[in-house]
Write a structure and sequence with these properties.
With about 250 residues, the protein is α/β, with parallel strands linked by helices. It has eight helices and seven strands. It has a seven-stranded parallel beta sheet, with helices on both faces.
């Protein structure tokens, strides 16, 4: 059991919360007593989640490829709840778009969502955090190795690894007590594989090879990071299914 009493009634923002890891993070944070704002492009999904959770849950439509949409979201949170103390940069996507043959628009979307939006959201959240807060990136094991055929997607997650360490150094230089962490899961049974391969059948085969992580497992990792005492910063949490070979 993770003790998050020090975060009670603090404001968390979870991006990409319409399903999978993001939705699980919202549920876990809300159950721990935080006020949780969460965003996605699929408005019906996040509104249903807000209705499920009730008070302290706020669904905000946002297109993370559009900086103005991100700005509007952060300003709305500041106006209603005073700003963000915990940022969960969960939004991310992948396409099977190899460097030699991939379509530019698919590369661009991965870079815009996985890297640029993460940077913009981090910058805006830091404005709210003052000397206490926690930025958590949901990254991937693809940020620690390069799976075959996924060089561009993997490059975006290697960028997240560099951005995590870069922000840690920036915060140390300024003497801030804000912490930054990344969670890098292996195979998690979500909608990701179907989106990546554009095939429900292939996704089912991917997840049938061995028992995969579940979104709730990753969300538990998030709670573990937040529950650490102020002098402890868990920098990178790597998670794989027990039987994942690579």
């Amino acid at each position: 059991m993770h003790d998050l009493s020090s975060w009670t009634d603090s404001v968390a923002l979870v991006t990409g919360a319409s399903a999978g890891i993001g939705a699980s993070c919202v549920r876990k944070l809300h159950a721990a007593g935080l006020r949780v704002a969460f965003c996605a492009r699929r408005v019906d999904r996040i509104e249903a989640l807000a209705a499920e959770l009730g008070e302290r849950a706020w669904a905000i439509p946002c297109d993370l490829r559009d900086e103005a949409s991100i700005d509007n979201m952060f300003n709305a949170i500041r106006d209603r709840w005073g700003g963000v103390s915990v940022l969960v940069n969960n939004a991310g996507l992948g396409h099977a778009a190899p460097l030699g043959t991939g379509a530019t628009e698919l590369w661009r979307e991965m870079l815009e969502v996985n890297v640029l939006a993460l940077c913009i959201c981090t910058r805006e959240a830091l404005k709210d955090m003052g000397d206490r807060g926690h930025v958590i990136h949901i990254s991937s094991m693809a940020g620690h190795r390069v799976p075959g055929g996924s060089g561009v997607y993997s490059a975006t997650k290697h960028a997240v690894k560099a951005l995590t360490e870069g922000l840690r150094l920036e915060l140390r230089e300024t003497g801030s007590s804000v912490r930054v962490s990344a969670i890098s899961p292996g195979y998690v049974e979500t909608e990701f594989a179907a989106q990546y391969s554009k095939s429900e059948e292939q996704a089912a085969q991917t997840y049938a090879r061995f028992p995969c992580l579940q979104p709730e497992d990753v969300a538990e990792g998030l709670l573990y990071l937040l529950a650490q005492p102020a002098h402890v910063q868990v920098h990178d949490l790597l998670m794989r299914p027990t039987h994942q070979p690579t």
